[in-house]
Structure formats: structure tokens, C-alpha cells
Amino acid sequence: MKPFSILYFTLSVALYLVALPLLVYLSFKHKYRESIPARFFLFKNPRFKSSDGIWFHVCSLGEARALGPILDLLKDQDIKITTITHTGQALARRYDAEVRYLPYEMFVPFWAKKQRVLVVLEAEFWFMLFSVLRARGTRVILLNARISEKSAKKYLQFAWFYKKLLSNVEMIYAQSEADKNRFLALGARNIEVVGNIKLSAEIKKTQEYKKPECELIVAGSTHEGEEESVLKSFIEYRKQSDAKLAIVPRHPERFEAVYELMKRYANDYSLSISRFSQSREFDSDLILVDAMGELNNIYAISDIAILGGAFRDDVGGHNPLEPAYFGCKIITGKHFFHQKELFKYVHHVQYVESDEIHRALMASKELPPSMVEEKIDLKPVIDRIIKN
Can you state which reaction this protein catalyses (predicted)? Predict the structure, then answer.
């Protein structure tokens, strides 16, 4: 390894030793019970079997889902996938691929096998992964690459480091011109703007559910604090309009806490409440959707989608393409910095603060459904990936 790589590796070992007690503690948390032992202790996380494939690395659920159209065009290839989160891992296992968790950086030199190409999605910038694989002859490509406006200043403060990291990259396919310029400022080269690959994803439902006779509002991919704002607004909205509300928390470990919150509102305002996992129907006034993989099925029968993750300033929003595809009238927050590129292609969206959701619900009556315009061409990307 080069001197800087040795220094970086040494620091990663020191950080690991300091964090070891916390890692052991977190390993017993339901959310991390699989991912932390796999990533930080290599538990049930062996090396890939072969060393001549196409390795995709993604972080979580959204990026894993975005791989679908690309993998459809690479059906005859030896595919490997690594993820960071357990939700990304669960979705990646549906593909015809070897799937692993990406180990912590100090393990990478001993764990990673050379592949023909490593394709890394979005903002997963791991120095040891890039430098080790490049040194072993693996081509490194960044796909759907982005640097958010909010994060750009932090990256620039360490521009010297990211210049070293990005020097290992053969090609960067950026989401937008703004992303391209931010990579250029970090000293990157060979950058091409292709748009967001999530625009090429096939959006479909997997189940048919009966739409209620009244208006159905779905609060999708919500985070802590957002559900209460939605519930307050819904109570006000119900004074002028007959409607039902389904809430779909982003993280399954929050199902119980959200249900307790919903029960409180149901008791205070004499509303009926149910858990979707028990009834699979939308007969109640309030429905907690406590099941994974159902959001598209619910968007398909919803009139209005309140898209979570953007009413707080620390999440960055969630994918608007799915509710727009099903013709929902979309309401979301103003902090959608991680999804800014996707929102460019979605029309008729209301962007509001959390205390303005009721006003947006009322305004929805006069607005057309949201819609998506634009597609991207994956052919240049596939050609680059499979080239010898």
C-alpha cells in the first residue's frame, strides 16, 4: 500500500478499537442485529466466490431498488452486490446475484477480491474500497453520483482527501450539472451527466387493494416527528372532508411507537384505527401500514400522498417518482436536498412546512395529479460497464 493508504488503514484500526464496545452493544439492537455483526465482525459475511464479475455497491433500499433496470440489461453477467443497511440487503437478495454486506474499511484489504469492475451508486465514497480494488486491477465507476448542496462545503473542506479518493475512479456518471461541477471542484475527472437512474426504474404494484369510497391520504416514508404533524393536519382536514389516513413509517422498528401515537389521536377524536398487517383493508379512519413492500400498492389507490423525509432538515427527502407514477397529488416538505434531481422531473408538487400540511391538503382539491416527465438512456452506462 502507498504511505497515505497505510496511514488511513492505521487510523481505521484505531477508530475500530475505540468504537468496539459501542459496536458490540448495537449488535443486540433489532435494527443492526444482522448488519453490524456482518460489517464489523465478518459474521456470516464471506468473501465473494469468484473474482471476475461486476460488483455493485449500494447503501440502502432506494439504491438497491434502482439497480433493477441495470441488472435486467446484464442478465448474462456474474453479478455481485454489497450493501450497508439491512433493508438494502433484503431487497438485493431478490436479484440473481451474490449479495454481501460491505465490511468496515480495515477489513477491505483482506476481504475484497478483484472484479472486472466496481460500480458504486450515489455518495458511497469509501477510500479503502476504491484504492484497494484499483490497485488490484478493478475498474471503478461511480453511477448516479451526487454531492448535495448541503454537503458540498464539507466535501470542499477535505478536497485534498477526495481528490486522492476520486483519482481511483475511471468514470463518474453524475445526476446533474450541479453535481458535475461539485465533483470538478474536488479534482475529479471523466465526468458525464446522465441524469438520475431512478428515472429508468420500472414502477409497479404487487397487490390489488380495494380503494375506500372516500378520499384516501397516505403519509409515506415518514420519520420521527413527521407523523404528529400529519395527524394534526388530518384532524383539521376531516372537519371539511371525508377522508381516511394511512401512515407508512420509513423504518419498521418504529411501527409500535407510531401506532401508540395514532391510538392517542384515535381516542382523543373518536376515530377508528387498525393495523394493516391484521386486516389488509382500509376501512378504518387511521391505518398503520406495518408491513414492508406495500407502499406502491397503497399509492395506487391513494388520492393524496404526503411524502415524508423532507419535513425535517436532517433526512433529505424520499423518492417522489412512485406516488407521481400512480397519479397521487403530492405534498412534501422543503428539505428534499437528497432528491432535488428527481423532483425536477415531477410536476404539480406542493412544498410546505410541517405546520402548512392542512393548507396543502385543502389546496389539493383544486390541483391536478402529480406527473413524471423524462426518461434516461442506460445504454452508454451499460456499454462502459461491460467493456473489456
Answer: lipid IVA (E. coli) + CMP-3-deoxy-beta-D-manno-octulosonate = alpha-Kdo-(2->6)-lipid IVA (E. coli) + CMP + H(+)
